[in-house]
Amino acid sequence: MIKVGLLGCGNVAHVIAKETGGFEIRACFDLMQNRAEEIAEITSAKPFSSFEDFIKEDMDIVVEAASVAAVHEFAMEVLKNGKDLVILSVGALADPELKDDLKEAAKKSGRKIYIPSGAIMGLDNLKIGRISNISKLLLRSTKNPRSLGIETDEKTLVFSGRADECIRRFPKNINVAIALELATGHDVDVELWADPALQRNTHEIVVEGDFGNFNLKIENKPCPDNPATSYLAALSIITLLKNLEDPIKIGT
Which residue range forms the structural domain that includes residue 205? Predict the structure, then answer.
């Protein structure tokens, strides 16, 4: 059974902790000790507020469910300590130097870095962009203005441009775009909309290429216990962990 460590014990970690069939959570780390202890009560894992102690535990894979800052601070050490790594805060990999350094560290240590599909679907199919021409790749995301830190009384386009430009202005809202870039090997155009009437975050992916056209719309329901967290993002990590040892692999 896969032995898992949770790096970050917030809302996503709570969803994972309740769905552990097929894997075992051995340790959980959060700078706030009480958060780690909450997960420990659910899973019987060891709680840690010291990363140095956490990373020494017997684990096969560490799941980052914390923040872009946490990826910058801890991801390299996870790999150096011989653990595979799941990165949910994939916006951190918009930093090309960090991405290249982590990739090289994974090669040297013989470990793997996994990027879950997060708040969207279709990443698996979009890998064809690495071998077939893509002429258009657009992500149109619509969110409540409160989550973007702005105020507006009507639906408003707040950003239009490249993903690397968007992350400078909205660093907490660009994970999906970076995941698309990593999957396709192609630059992503981003439209970010604010809509005060919106009840669910919505992502529309528009792709055109030599293989045909691809249009996908996802309306994310929030986690049952916390409306600030995408339930789909948490479920994508659980699915990834459950499938690691499956002898039959579906998709590319």
Answer: 123-220
